[in-house]
Amino acid sequence: NFRKLAGCTLFITGASRGIGKAIALKAAKDGANIVIAAKTAEPHPTLPGTIYTAAAEIEAAGGKALPCIVNVREEQQIINAVEKAVKTFGGIDILVNNASAISLTGTLETETKKVNLMMDVNVRGTYLTSKTCLPYLRKSRNPHILNLSPPMNLNPMWFKNHCAYTISKYGMSMCVLGMAEEFRGEVAVNALWPKTAIHTAAMDMLGGSGIEKQCRKTDILADAAYCILTKPKSFTGNFIIDEVLLKEEGVKDFDVYAIAPGKSHLSPAGASQEEKRSGGSQGEGPGGAQADMEPAPTKPPSPVAETFRVIQGAVSVEHVRSTQGVFQFELSGDEGGTWYIDLKTEGGSAGFGKPPVTADVVMSMSSADFVKMFTGKLKPTLAFMSGKLRIKGNMALAIKLEKMLTQLNSKL
Q1: Residue 257 among the catalytic residues
Q2: Of 96, 222, 243, 302, which sits with the fewest C-beta atoms within 10 Å of its C-beta?
Q3: Looking at 136, 165, 170, 257, which residue is catalytic?
Q4: Superfamily assignment of 9-257 in CATH?
Q5: Quick check: helix, strand or coil at residue 77?
Q6: What confidence tier does 175 reach under pLDDT thresholds 50, 70, 90?
Q7: Taking CA 322 as the corner, what is the angle to CA 316 and CA 326, rounded to the nearest 5 degrees?
């Protein structure tokens, strides 16, 4: 990498261990400033690391560390840490809401204090930390909020065995939905979730002895987070699975992330139902339990969404330099709605909704024809001449887009 996060300030909750610390160390290698906002100031009897040992590792990796004792249930502690971060580093560029509480228990087995803990840490803590950081994030050149939370799937099977936990994690995801739209064009807000189980202290407690052989290292989430946090702020409102994103970024060898390389029996991020019943429960843990269980696996993306996902991963600086255009798509049919490809702003972007800046070209067509066009089954010129495609705006740019499609067809 090109030290893309050098000088940036990251405020990471639950960064004293696990996934939060892995993300911190990845950014520290660029020379970033890391605010370690976690609870563990004194060594925990069973969980490794404190905010001070994490700070030492971050400094050794090349970053600057600011350890802050923060229980995200306490609003004043969040406010104090944010103010200290701004005073120390001059601002905040990135917020990672990683701290979580987990109890994989049924409704009758979940004590009220555990329900309160999960709602307070996962939903309220994420909301309040985001709210406190946002005024400073809006002043940053390329601000991001990243929540460690799953894509939402309302299939009842993901609620029935641990209703309170699923509700609380979906609360974090709903923060992404709402804030991404509320601050579109100002602050990027996205969610990240693992495809497989991730080996953390929380996973050891939930899965028991030997579970690590079915897990990947926290490095995979750190690498995925880095990809997200170095994208332009127009990349927002996405629910990202680590492996899917890294494949789009060109990663081919995922064996390097496995605790036991060469093993093909990796557990999905949602443990088996037997493990969930016997795994017990865990509260927040000093510094926050990490996002290591998946109540909602990703549904296969729709053809239109998948097409835009691939385009986002394939767009290069050269495409932006040679095209210099913003394209808006008004699609009708089953996947109707507004989508865009921005080949003018910074590194380029693509996704759902209106583009971050005014479109140069607006194209209207059915979602089915859109997919055919972008996979080479329907030529844009033929679609236009036959009336399947309507174009408003700069026709020269529309032709440039057609040339780019020819280059990308092998990936689409």
Answers
A1: no
A2: 302
A3: 165
A4: NAD(P)-binding Rossmann-like Domain (3.40.50.720)
A5: helix
A6: very high
A7: 80
